[in-house]
């Protein structure tokens, strides 16, 4: 039986299964993200500036023009968009339009910067990866069997399969019950 994309089936003799699925289009990219909490600063109320601390390991990967999405604690159901204006060594400056004037100086923003993006790739739940990230486990004849994989980008939940004998729809073990 083929599971719908991303569905978890709790069967198979105490093993929890996930599913390998294809990221179908640009709209559903597998993205490697940089997440950070920071505070909003206003130079103009129509365009806010966000200055966020940046892990030095990620600083070399952040470039001007990269897309940023963020939420603020005061408006938890709303996502805002911005753009990296100026990456620095230990911080990044982000410009965010504020046409409806709902963003205010001093609000705390939770940022998401897309560092890398892939479309039309196979991805696997991170829970299916072994500790070293070199293999996943599948059921073969009712018994767990390791399958070697080579991984690409991750969004912290799923990871791209760059090289793997697994096909779209393959069921992988993601834990035990």
Task: Provide a quick synopsis of the model.
The chain is an all-beta fold. It has 2 domains: 9-28 and 119-176, conserved putative lor/sdh protein from methanococcus maripaludis s2 fold (Beta Barrel); 30-117, Elongation Factor Tu (Ef-tu), domain 3. Helices cover 2% and strands 57% of the residues.
Observed structural traits:
single chain; 177 residues; mainly beta; conserved putative lor/sdh protein from methanococcus maripaludis s2 fold; Elongation Factor Tu (Ef-tu), domain 3; 2 domains; 6-stranded antiparallel barrel; 4-stranded antiparallel beta sheet; elongated
The stretches of 5 or more residues where confidence is low (pLDDT under 50) are 1-30
Q: Taking all residues together, what is the mean pLDDT?
A: 77
Enumerate how many helices there are, as a single number. 1
Question: What class do helices, strands and sheet pairing give?
Answer: mainly beta
What summary fits the major beta sheet? 6 strands, antiparallel, barrel
Multimeric organization:
single chain
- Overall radius of gyration: 20 Å
The beta-strand count equals: 15
According to CATH, the homologous superfamily of the largest domain is Efflux pump adaptor protein, beta barrel domain
Assigned CATH class of the largest domain: Mainly Beta
β-sheet strand percentage:
over 45%
Terminus-to-terminus distance? 21 Å
Question: What number of domains?
Answer: 2
Helix percentage range: under 10%
Which strands sit side by side, in order, in the main sheet? 4-5-8-7-6-9
Instruction: Give the helices and strands as they follow along the chain.
Output: EEEEEHEEEEEEEEEE
| CATH fold naming of the largest domain | Elongation Factor Tu (Ef-tu), domain 3
CATH hierarchy: architecture of the largest domain:
Beta Barrel
In one word, what is the shape?
elongated
């Amino acid at each position: 039986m083929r599971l719908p994309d991303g569905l978890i089936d709790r069967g198979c003799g105490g093993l929890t299964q996930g599913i390998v699925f294809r990221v179908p289009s640009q709209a559903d990219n597998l993205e490697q993200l940089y997440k950070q909490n920071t505070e909003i600063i206003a130079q103009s109320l129509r365009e806010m500036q966000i200055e966020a601390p940046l892990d030095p390991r990620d600083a070399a990967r952040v470039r001007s023009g990269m897309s940023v999405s963020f939420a603020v604690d005061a408006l938890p159901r709303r996502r805002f968009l911005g753009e990296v204006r100026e990456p620095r060594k230990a911080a990044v400056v982000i410009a965010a339009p504020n046409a409806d004037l709902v963003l205010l100086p001093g609000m705390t923003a939770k940022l998401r910067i897309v560092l890398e993006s892939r479309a039309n790739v196979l991805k696997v739940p991170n829970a299916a990866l072994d500790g070293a990230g070199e293999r996943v486990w599948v059921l073969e004849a009712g018994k767990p069997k390791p399958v070697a994989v080579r991984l690409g980008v991750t969004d912290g939940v799923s990871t791209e399969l760059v090289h793997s004998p697994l096909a779209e729809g393959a069921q992988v073990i993601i834990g035990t019950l």
